[in-house]
Amino acid sequence: MDLAAPINSALKRVPAWPLYPLGAVPVVWILWQGLEGKLGVDPTKAIEHQLGLWGLWLLIAGLAITPLQRFAGIRLLKFRRAIGLLAFFYILAHLLVWLVLDVQIPSLIWADIVKRPYITIGMAAFLLMVPLALTSNNWSLRKLGAARWRRLHKLTYVLAPLAAIHFVMVVKGWQLEPIYYLACVVGLLALRLVPKRLRIFAAPPVRS
Ligand code: HEM
Known about the structure:
Layout: H1 5-12, H2 19-35, H3 43-72, H4 80-103, H5 106-115, H6 117-134, H7 138-144, H8 146-152, H9 156-170, H10 176-190
Helix pairs in contact: 2-3, 2-4, 3-4, 3-9, 3-10, 4-6, 5-6, 6-9, 7-8, 9-10
The structure holds protoporphyrin IX containing FE.
Residues 45, 48-49, 52-53, 55-56, 59, 91, 94-95, 98, 119, 122-123, 125-126, 163, 166-167, 170 line the site of protoporphyrin IX containing FE.
């Protein structure tokens, strides 16, 4: 019996587009709290941190979609583009807060990127996200062809660990929270190496 069938038939009726306005809610809430002075003594840092965290959560959510389909038969593929694009916009906002509110002085930007390894790694992760965000549309998929498009989007497997390592390096000492996220990313990537025939519920195989 396909235990995922009722979930999938409910999901079929849910369109993907509402994720975009819904995904904007946390950023509006974070900025609103900042303007209201509710983010403590260093609102810039708090905004930077929260946007970075949302970006990472969304990256992890995007990575979970293929294993969920492969092992549990739950089909969330139609939401993946919105989740990936939202992750990109959160990281872009995280980067802009760093540039505009944190560093501020243009001559210090490059120095900071080169001098601080956690910024170098964060920047590398962000730069790898750019081609993915730019090609997350039907036109690019058609132009590149499915095989090349899929190959390009495998950059996620590099950028997601870099993003999680960036968080591990940001915090002082060995804290558990970023390590959990790194383990999550590594675990979700490792699941892709498991033979495709292993599944919890019956479900057709999935590519990528
Ligand atoms: C995929 C890319 C990225 C992800 C997922 C990410 C995520 C995060 C997370 C989760 C934090 C820590 C939040 C906390 O402490 O609660 C953080 C902190 C930070 N990130 Fe990123 N980040 C990324 C890229 C970048 C880039 C491109 C820059 C700048 C070039 C950057 C600069 C910073 C800075 C300055 C901090 C705060 C450090 C401090 O507390 O002093 N990040 N990031």
